Amino acid sequence: GENVEQHPSTLSVQEGDSAVIKCTYSDSASNYFPWYKQELGKGPQLIIDIRSNVGEKKDQRIAVTLNKTAKHFSLHITETQPEDSAVYFCAASKNSGYSTLTFGKGTMLLVSP
Amino acid sequence: EPEVTQTPSHQVTQMGQEVILRCVPISNHLYFYWYRQILGQKVEFLVSFYNNEISEKSEIFDDQFSVERPDGSNFTLKIRSTKLEDSAMYFCASRSPGTGENEQFFGPGTRLTVL
To answer: Is the pLDDT of residue A42 over 90?
Structure first.
């Protein structure tokens, strides 16, 4: 089955800096890659996703890049703010009707003012 | 904005007892999921449900687990005889039936503590 590895496990940055979180996946049939943000005591919330027919997607300060050949994808957050502090999970799934998500282990991002 | 809701937010039970975790998915969604997250670990898939039957389940989802959609709105996860290692956060998620609509919307979770 699919295996998703995520690095780093923790990331501390200063407000205004950029943050990059990287994930690799094992199943070449996976073609949907969402990123979720989980704040303390809450469920994961989708922040951005990418499908394998594109290499990059951007939404304001957040961008995701995908390298299908290398089977890795990354989350980029620019101009970080303290409210970006949370745990971020990458995930992968196949474009089946049921889209089971396989998650990475998560990255705790801490943005210091 | 529509959201997935879950009750209770926290459930404490004794080992061997049965628990039922409840979820109300977003109203027009047809695909439903349960995931769990042991403290400090990643979110793990348990089961997916569509058209009143299980469509996929993981190795974690053994005979002690069952899911049900008893009416048009609720989606439940039952653990028949809880074990200490069942202590985790359980998340329900739902997804739209739309073609290409992969996004799963997660509820806030139920924290299950087995003593």
So the answer is: no
